[in-house]
Design brief:
964 residues, 35 strands, 30 helices, rod-shaped, 6-stranded antiparallel β-sheet
Length: 964
């Protein structure tokens, strides 16, 4: 067989022996070994050398998946390649075909063993692309029948390519040589790839070395010095590469850490440790924590150490902070009163973490929840189940956090209210990891809220039922309201919403004369941060003027600014009227006391005057010219006694003779007297309620009252026609009917009363006049008219009755009198009236009176009657005289009103000395008053001052005769 080795486009060089073929093949293999470390160069050398050997061939490389072969080198004769390219555009190189089709290469890939083929022409079509397979016969025809050898390209037993050679001189005996040649090709390709990889790795290493985020140093372990450092190492240490190369490695170790650093370095260079964490001192003195990853390698026969230094200072600090934070978290979590949890968002909310507080809240150990032996779903109240969170993660994410309130059952069976604050925890892709939150026991708060709601309800009810108005308002001149209770309707006539809505302002309702005072007092109190209390007048919606009392205080911010006013306003109109009536009553009472005192003293003088003048008349013969003058003095004294009776009537201590009276019958009997007293143009009408129960009173005093009121009514009517209406009836008086006793200043006992009204259609009175009508000697006509209505008031006071007056200018006046209903006949002391003188009997009379004129007159009268008189100027002297001469004293004439020891106290002491002592009381006050004070106490009788000779003598003799 002839082999030829030809240059491209030249005829092959003939060879005459087989040894030449093998020698040529070995030369080709050597050429491949000398090829530059480049895959392209290796492939080019293959094409050159296979052609020189006198063969044709292809070199295909397998992809990484082992599924596709690609021709990387095709060595065909030049004329054939040119013809194929011209004919079908086929270059060969770059042609790819799969290894799973039925062709010769499939066998090679499967067996990885070389084999001989006698004729390769049938192997061409299966590896050609579909669009050029029609030219397979032409290609095969151009080549002719040629044998071929197929050999694998292996690297450590792994197939990575194929070699196909063909030529006329090949035989099966050439398979080992071709396999050896294929191995040379594989080695050349592997070396080229390895060299290129090393070159790329070196470039990449240098790039990484220079741009690494970590510090990299190369250290000579024998010298313990740095021989190379990247820029990051310079930045980490604060030294330049030159400075690092110049200093010992130990210079980077912190003081006190050098020995440990040496020990760590020794373990590294001995290969015991490749990753350590150590400390490093920077150029500026700051100490860092660094992780060191060490690698021992050889370079040009020298053993070196490469260290990658990663700054973990911030990490360690963060780690320490995290550790401390976690420690604090665990401390706080396990000591927190609330349950802290992490759980899955599923039906049972399986717990991933729980703190110890869950046992306090539920009574179950946290391990039972974490091991799913019990879930929160098991202890929810069934009525609270609708609170379940949405299963859609996106919806939960949109909600952000959640706040839920529900009940859970404690292990003891008790239901507890809890509040759950939490939210979803999501990863960077928005997926829900778990739910996190805390659960607080709010049972007490719920109970407090319920109690507060009940308290607010009760407070609201209380406020609504208060007689006054509760408010909250701004501190402006119109007192703009933010809240007003329903009491505003009764107080002002306006509804709360009218105040709150701004339809009406409370400040506008305050009386103009009081507004500035109210504003100033409130501002002064606010400036002192004190409550304010004040009273003033307001206008009701219907125009009425009311007195109100207000108590309030400011609501302040933390900076001391007045935010609002809060308080209470109540109607004190009636109280104001009652206070005014009380002041008026106290004035009247003071005047009454004064009048009573004047009457008492005047009566004592009249006793002397009447007593002495009556004695003078007794001793003067009728023809005596002086008698007429004495009689005039007696008449003057009697008229003076009428004045004292008026004064006593005004004071309510006049001489009353109480008995049951039919008021209607009395008024009918008085009709003629009243009609005669009235002008003809005044009509008197009666509206008497029959039947009418009896009252308790003094006929004479009541007659004086009626006459006084009727005459006053006639004067009010004046000269025009008019009418006076007298009405009677029954009225029930309660605790709140204080206007009936406002004038008398003596509260009426609740119960049944008889009323007497005297109404006229006269000129009426204004409020100013109405407030003065009961003042003594007040009149709207002319001065000098006497006590007038003051006596009426005194008489009603003496009857324990009431008086009410209503009047309006131009609309007349109505007086209403109330008399207590008579319950029974009242036992009374005998009123000793004058009688004819009786015979004189011997005996002694003790006269006790603080007025010397009274003692003198009484002594003169009694001595004229032939009686022995013992006189005492006060109670103590009288008692002393009675002790000394009790056996001789038959009777004591005792004045009721004395300074020092009063008549009542003197009487009590005389009874102590002698329970059978006989005492006649003497006073200018009424017998009724004496009856009330001395009823059932053994009083022999009563004589009213002033008295004359006949009255005193008759009373004394009447008693002495009865004793005898």
């Amino acid at each position: 067989m002839v082999y030829t080795v030809a240059q491209p486009d030249e005829e092959p060089v003939p060879a005459t022996r087989r040894a030449d073929f093998l020698h040529a093949l070995n030369a080709a293999a050597a050429a491949l070994q000398r090829a530059p470390h480049s895959e392209v160069k290796v492939l080019h050398t293959f094409k050159e050398q296979i052609t020189r050997v006198g063969l044709n061939g292809t070199l295909a490389l397998l992809d990484e998946q082992g599924k596709k072969l690609t021709f990387r080198a095709v060595a065909f004769p030049g004329h054939l390649l040119q013809s194929l390219e011209e004919m079908i555009g086929f270059k060969g190189e770059g042609l790819s075909f799969t290894t799973d089709e039925d062709h010769v290469y499939r066998r090679l890939v499967t067996t990885k063993e070389a084999f001989f083929v006698a004729d390769i022409s049938g192997d061409i079509a299966p590896v050609l692309p579909l669009d050029v397979r029609q030219y397979a016969k032409e290609i095969a025809g151009s080549l002719g029948e040629q044998p071929g050898i197929y050999a694998p390209l292996l690297s450590e037993g792994h197939l990575f390519g194929t070699l196909a050679v063909f030529g006329p001189g090949l035989s099966a005996a050439d398979v080992p040589a071709i396999v050896a040649f294929a191995n040379h090709i594989a080695v050349a390709l592997e070396n080229a790839r390895l060299f290129q990889a090393m070159h790329r790795a070196e470039v990449q290493y240098r790039r990484l070395f220079e741009t690494s985020n970590d510090a990299i140093v190369v250290i000579n372990p024998q010298q313990r010095r740095i021989i190379s450092a990247n820029p990051r190492a310079e930045l980490l240490t604060g030294y330049s590469e030159a400075e690092l190369q110049a200093m010992p490695l130990s210079h980077l170790a912190p003081a006190g850490y050098l020995e440990e650093a040496r020990h760590i370095f020794d373990r590294i260079i001995q290969g015991e440790q490749h990753a350590v964490e150590t400390r490093l001192i920077r150029h500026d003195g700051r100490e860092l924590s660094v992780q060191v990853f060490a690698t021992i390698f050889a370079l040009e026969g020298q053993r070196l150490l490469q260290g990658v230094l990663h700054d973990v200072t911030d990490y360690r600090q963060a780690e320490e902070a995290l550790r401390q934070s976690e420690e604090r978290f665990h401390i706080l979590a396990n000591n927190a009163p609330a349950v802290i949890y992490l759980c899955q968002n599923n039906y049972t909310f399986n717990m991933l973490y729980l703190n110890d507080a869950v046992e306090t809240l539920t009574g179950y150990p946290k391990e039972e929840f974490l091991e799913n032996r019990i879930t929160f779903r098991d202890i929810y109240h069934p009525d609270d189940s609708p609170f379940i969170l949405p299963e859609d993660d996106e919806e939960l994410k949109r909600q952000g956090s959640f706040q839920l309130s529900y009940r859970i059952r404690h292990r003891s069976g008790e239901w507890r209210w809890v509040e759950d604050y939490g939210g979803g925890v999501f990863d960077d892709d928005g997926r829900l990891l778990f739910l996190a939150g805390f659960i607080s026991d709010i049972t007490k708060r719920k109970q407090a809220e319920e109690a507060l709601q009940e308290s607010q309800r009760a407070l609201s009810t209380l406020i609504s039922n208060l007689p006054g108005m509760v408010y909250r308002c701004r501190n402006d001149r119109r007192w703009s309201n933010e809240f007003v209770s329903d009491g505003s309707i009764e107080l002002t006539g306006y509804r709360p919403e009218e105040f709150i809505g701004g339809q009406v302002y409370y400040g506008d309702l305050i009386h103009p004369d009081d507004r500035d005072r109210v504003w100033n007092e409130v501002q002064e109190a606010l400036a002192r941060r004190q409550p304010f209390r004040l009273s003033y007048r307001v206008y009701h919606k219907d125009g009425r003027e009311k007195w109100v009392w207000e108590q309030g205080q400011g609501v302040y911010s933390s900076e001391g600014e007045v935010l609002a006013l809060e308080g209470f306003i109540t109607d004190i109109t009636e109280r104001k009227q009652a206070e005014e009536a009380l002041r008026h009553g106290q004035k009247m009472e003071s005047l009454g006391i004064l009048a009573g005192g004047v009457a008492h003293d005047f009566n004592n003088l009249l006793v002397a005057m009447l007593g002495q003048t009556s004695l003078a008349l007794l001793k003067l013969p009728p023809e005596n010219s002086a008698r007429q003058h004495v009689e005039k003095a007696v008449k003057a004294a009697e008229r003076a006694s009428d004045l004292t009776r008026q004064l006593l009537a005004y004071s309510g201590r006049g001489q009353f003779t109480h008995r049951p009276i039919d008021l209607n019958a009395f008024l009918r009997e008085s009709t003629p007297l009243l009609e005669v007293s009235l002008p003809k143009h005044v009509q008197l009408r009666w509206e008497l309620a029959d039947p009418l129960v009896a009252i308790e009173g003094d006929l004479g005093q009541i007659q004086q009252v009626v006459m006084n009121l009727v005459l006053n009514a006639a004067e009010a009517i004046g000269d025009r026609p008019g009418a006076i209406v007298i009405t009677t009836g029954e009225r029930l008086i309660g605790q709140n009917d204080n206007h009936y006793w406002r004038e008398t200043n003596d509260p009426l006992k609740p119960g049944q009363y008889i009323f007497l009204k005297v109404a006229d259609d006269g000129s009426g009175m204004d409020d100013n006049t109405l407030g003065k009508i009961f003042d003594p000697f007040f009149t709207t006509k002319f001065t000098g008219r006497g006590l007038g209505l003051a006596a009426v008031l005194g008489i009603m006071r003496g009857h324990k009755g009431g008086v009410s007056v209503s009047s309006q200018v131009g609309q007349g006046t109505t007086f209403e009198l109330l008399f207590p209903v008579s319950e029974a006949e009242v036992a009374r002391l005998p009123i000793l009236a004058p009688a004819q003188p009786v015979r004189k009997q011997p005996g002694a009379v003790l006269v006790i009176d603080d007025e010397a004129a009274v003692r003198e007159a009484a002594s003169d009268i009694l001595e004229l009657e032939g009686l022995r008189v013992i006189a005492a100027a006060d109670g103590l002297k009288g008692i002393h005289l009675y002790q000394e001469q009790a056996a001789d004293i038959d009777l004591v004439l005792l004045d009721l009103s004395m300074p020092g020891l009063s008549g009542e106290e003197t009487f009590r002491e005389l009874q102590r000395l002698n329970p059978q002592v006989q005492v006649i009381l003497s006073s200018g006050y009424s017998a009724a008053e004496v009856n009330r004070a001395f009823q059932g106490r053994g009083i022999a009788g009563f004589i009213q001052k002033p008295y004359d000779w006949e009255t005193l003598a008759s009373a004394v003799w009447r008693h002495l005769d009865s004793q005898n």
